[in-house]
Amino acid sequence: MSNYHFEVTIISRGKGRSVTSSVSYISGRALHDIHNGKTYYKHREDLAWQKIFLPDHAPAEFRQLQHLCDEIECAEMRWDARTARQLTASLPNELPLGELVRIVHEFVADNFTSQGLCTVAAIHRKHNHHDPKKNNPHVHMIVPTRPVGPDGFCKLKDREHDKRKYITIWREQWATVQNRAYERNGLDIQVSHESLEAQGKHDREPTIHLSRIDWQRERRGERTPAGDRKRAVKERNQRRIYQREMEQRQEIELELYR
């Protein structure tokens, strides 16, 4: 079953977050933060793909992950600086990795590199061969808050994309590139960035998004209150779908015998 999830968070030193730490987490690479002197490493078995997207005029050295992180940290002098935006979004479980990569390429090109912004992206996907539906593919995209010029990061920050309208724009774009991929692969599936209420689907409950901590606990086999609520919502929605299918079948049978 298709699903849609898209969220935007801010990586801010003032909130205790490090852009180097965040890049290390999504990429599974050991990286040193020259701002706070810490080295980060997150071993990942679910890393399916990772790439640095750069505008055409960016310095060639920016293709090296450690160098890029150093430049991001050096460009921000304030102790409470907002260093990047992080976008986390679900990907279609029905499509192969090559199509997932193409979705990310199209989205980043349309929304970031074309605007002079670089992006570090990583696709995570479980390897559940017994039940592929549980692979949960998703992408993390880290977008520094400064545009890139031929000499590196610009002195002026990108303030335009701080406007709240861009969250709606990005959400809609994310649905668009996924639906394009579904159509390209001959699948009669669509996702929507709109709420269930806006789509007129009043008979279906919205699913619950697990926090990273709860998701990790569930992955280790622990049951969490949020996980139980998510399972309960899924079960109720499945019952509603079954009931609706039965009602439609009965209506067809009644129509046949009239």
In short:
The protein has 258 residues and is of the alpha+beta class. The chain has six helices and nine strands.
Write the layout of secondary structure elements.
Layout: E1 6-12, H1 19-27, E2 31-32, E3 39-40, E4 47-53, H2 65-75, E5 82-90, H3 97-111, E6 119-124, E7 138-144, E8 148-149, E9 152-153, H4 165-184, H5 212-219, H6 225-256
Antiparallel strand pairs: 1-5, 2-3, 4-6, 5-7, 6-7, 8-9
Helix pairs in contact: 3-4
Characterization of the model:
The protein has 258 residues and is an alpha+beta fold. It contains six helices and nine strands, in the order E-H-E-E-E-H-E-H-E-E-E-E-H-H-H. The strands form three sheets. The chain has a five-stranded antiparallel β-sheet with strand order 1-5-7-6-4, with helices on both faces. A two-stranded antiparallel ribbon has the order 2-3. It has a two-stranded antiparallel sheet with strand order 8-9. It is globular, with a radius of gyration of 21 Å. The relative contact order is 0.13.
